[in-house]
Amino acid sequence: MVLMSPARVILLARGIQLPGLEDPLVCEAVALREAVYWCLDNGFSMVRFEGDAQVIIERILRREATDSRVGSILEEVVQLFDMNVGFTVRFVGRRSNRVAHLVAKKALSLYPTTSRFDYQAWLNSRV
Question: Which intervals hold domain RNase H type-1 (predicted)?
Answer without folding.
Answer: 7-107
